[in-house]
Amino acid sequence: MPRRIASGDGKPRPATIKDVARHAGVSVATVSRILSGTYPNAPATRSKVMRAVRELDYVPNAHARGLAGVRPKSVAIVVNSVISPHYAHVAQGVHEEAARAGRLCIVGTTGGDLERELAAIQLMREEHAEAVILVGNVNPDEAYRERMAGYARALAAAGSQLVLCGRPPLGPDVPAIVVEYDNTGGAFAATSHLLSAGHKRILFLGRRSGYTTPESRVAGYRAALAAHGVPHDPGLEVDGARMVRREGYRMMRERLDAGPRDFTAVFASNDLIAAGAREALRERGLRIPEDVSMVGFDDLPPAADIDLTTVYIPHEELGRTAVRLALKSETPGASEHVLLGTHIVVRDSVCPNVGEASGPD
Amino acid sequence: MPRRIASGDGKPRPATIKDVARHAGVSVATVSRILSGTYPNAPATRSKVMRAVRELDYVPNAHARGLAGVRPKSVAIVVNSVISPHYAHVAQGVHEEAARAGRLCIVGTTGGDLERELAAIQLMREEHAEAVILVGNVNPDEAYRERMAGYARALAAAGSQLVLCGRPPLGPDVPAIVVEYDNTGGAFAATSHLLSAGHKRILFLGRRSGYTTPESRVAGYRAALAAHGVPHDPGLEVDGARMVRREGYRMMRERLDAGPRDFTAVFASNDLIAAGAREALRERGLRIPEDVSMVGFDDLPPAADIDLTTVYIPHEELGRTAVRLALKSETPGASEHVLLGTHIVVRDSVCPNVGEASGPD
DNA sequence: CTGAAAGCGCTTACAG
DNA sequence: CTGAAAGCGCTTACAG
Fold it and tell me: Which residues form the HTH lacI-type domain (chains A, B) (predicted)?
């Protein structure tokens, strides 16, 4: 049982470096040096000090240490929500790499609210986090770019580093590290997979104008159509408000209600949308893949449960890379751009097209 | 564009309170008081100071503030992994409540590793987190109890507070807040639901001796059998190593391989296990609920996708309550015990038993 | 290899 | 309502 120091009024208070020094019969400078482990020291002194540390259950005060100029041991991540599977997996990667480097993770959630994002960044600046990682889908309009440039410069000035994860770069004059993954390539592969099975009428579910993630997936979809010489019908691109299950259900439901089915396959902009769309199809007695083929994006838990062919994103690798690059860069305010690959994962949601569905031609 | 202070060597450095004071023509004490907002102050002075703060983009240094004795603005949570849906939802609740209270969240992941748990707690002590929340299933043996008692006392001594979430209390002499939910009651309701549908041979999938979560669910299962006058057959309780999908698959698969089916219904100790077991059943052509009825526990995402009747746990409420109680308690090292309710959520995974399965009698 | 002392950026009695 | 000064617990040149 470690002893506790009693202050004047008898209440226990945590031991300080002074207590340790007194206990070990050395100066505080010596204790500090021995604990830092980067100075030469006499073994006898060393063991005296370590013994005192153990006996007093001494834990250094991170605030004092931070004030005295030592780089703090924390990285920060800001996400919309920690229950979104994609964010959770990226965060998991961040945690792993942070733990490996002996860093603590500060996590901020915004719920998509700008006020909360600002407040989170502010608190992280106060804490002097070594890096601040922002992740996820955004609409990179002028206001967004200015906000990010402001964050980047403020963090750099404070010796920290802004990292953008799954977002586009901000431009050469903004000090930020960017870790992206290949949305367009993945969407190209997914669409090609359907095209190779003979599908020509492929519904794209979940377009959202202005937002980087769905837009780059639509781009891959269109590129694949073009590459296979299949005409592009804008009427097959369905808009969705958010990339969630319920939206997938709504979009498919409304499509089926609107008239005779004019597609044989579906490319859902993510797995959650695929799961929702699948439910709407089943309510009409349409099975996957016998009646309709479907491909998703993300390769997150729902995909395995519904046997969905989808596109794998290196979620955790994104988080690990973000931390690795941020901690590596000696100079705060570094700029770097990394693009990680994606690939298709084949399950059982695509059948060859036997030409049932009627096109508008 | 905020001005940046240039230090001697020309590199920008973040503004300090001194810069603000000089810029506003007042003393640092005045700036400090105005920013704290808890002292009387002259409106004219106030606006001068706020203007300087804005123009210099001043952010207070949390380390200096912490050192000077102000309670830090962070709560900490320690979980096995952030991608486990249960942990993620509890964490979401913690974040919400923390954000509401203007606190930052420090999140530690342990991967179930004791070394990492210890390291995380240590770092959180260094950071002087206001509360440290530990969540999840454990085997509360002597070593565990001693470890927790040590954490609790060390945190209390440092003015912080240990909170146990979904874990049993440690005893009256240990300063910890405990927020539990009703596992046994939920399991009783789930089992009763199956019994009411006429099932008598109910497989319990995922017993794990010594671990609090599965053990209290088994207890509810047994209590329900007893209450309904159905004989308890220990042979219907199947052991599982971890509460994951793959284990559910393995347990069901081995059970079906071992001989003729001797149950008409399944109570899975959580939804993931239910999803895995369902897959094994389907491989044998057994459908839910036509051939086998099934009930799970958690009411997390997989449940809706597989139409599973299950037990709802107030995951997020657990996290919110943990933070609320911890921040409320003025005296660090408070003791408190809260038990939140659970309830059954009926979907489409239970049919009346028509007496197909053969019991051992 | 070790110690005495300055300083990091705040807050808060203590005076006025 | 405001200012001068001590002090929080460390680290690190500066001496020796």
Answer: 15-69
Residues of A in contact with B89 (CB under 8 A): 83
Residues in B closer than 8 angstroms to A13, CB to CB, are 157
| Assigned CATH class of A183-309 | alpha beta
- The pLDDT > 90 percentage for chain A reads 72
pLDDT reported for residue A358: 45
The SS3 assignment for B355 reads coil
Question: Which of A63, A109, A301 has its CB closest to that of B63?
Answer: A63
CATH homologous superfamily for the domain B74-180+315-340: Response regulator (3.40.50.2300)
Q: Which residues contact B51 (CB under 8 A, 6 or more apart)?
A: B24
C-alpha dist (Å) from residue A165 to A75, A120, A207, B264, B271: 14, 17, 21, 49, 31
Residue of A nearest to B81 (CA): A92
CA–CA distance from B100 to each of A184, A326, B37, B103 (Å)? Answer: 38, 29, 19, 8
Cβ pair A336, A177 in contact under 8 A: yes
Chain D bases near protein Cβ (<7 Å): 1-5, 7-13
Is B150's CB less than 7 Å from nucleic acid strand C? no
Query: What whole-number percentage of chain B has pLDDT above 90?
Result: 72
CA distance B274 to A112: 33
Residue at token pair 């470690």: A2
A353 touches chain B (CB under 8 A): no
Classify domain A74-181+314-341 at the CATH topology level.
Rossmann fold (3.40.50)
Q: Could A127 and B74 be called an inter-chain contact, meaning their C-beta atoms sit closer than 8 Å?
A: yes
The span from the CA of B159 to the CA of A13, in Å, is 8
**DSSP calls for B44-72:** HHHHHHHHHHHHHT----HHHHHHTTPPP
Which residues sit opposite B74 in a β-bridge? B104
Whether residue A67 and residue B73 make contact (CB cut-off 8 A), yes or no, is no
Question: Mind listing the pLDDT tens digit for each residue in B96-150?
Answer: 999 999 899 999 999 888 888 998 999 899 989 999 999 988 999 999 999 999 9
Cα(A18)–Cα(B61) distance, rounded to whole angstroms?
A: 24
For the entire predicted model, the pTM comes to 0.90
| Domain B5-67 in CATH 1.10.287.130 | no
Instruction: Tell me which residues of chain B, numbers 270 to 299, contact chain A at a CB-CB cutoff of 8 Å.
Output: 275
Which of B83, B173, B298, B331 to substitute to test the interface with A, most A CBs within 10 Å? B83
CA-based torsion, B7, B11, B17, B22: positive or negative? positive
Whether the Cβ atoms of residue A332 and residue A159 lie closer than 8 Å to each other: yes
CA–C1' gap, B25 and C12, in angstroms: 21
Q: Which residues of A touch B57 (CB under 8 A)?
A: 154
Tokens representing A55? 């006996």
Taking 3-state DSSP, the helix, strand and coil percentages for chain A, each rounded to the nearest 5, stand at 45, 15, 40
Same fold, B5-67 and B74-180+315-340: no
B357: CB within 7 A of chain C nucleic strand: no
Are the C-beta atoms of A31 and A22 separated by less than 8 Å?
Answer: no
CB B160 within 8 A of CB B192: no
Sign of the C-alpha dihedral computed for residues A188, A194, A197 and A203 taken in this order: negative
Q: Which of A59, A15, A67 is nearest to A35 (CA)?
A: A59
Nearest to A13 among B59, B66, B157 (CB): B157
Please, which residues have CB within 8 angstroms of residue B143's CB and are 6 or more apart in sequence?
none
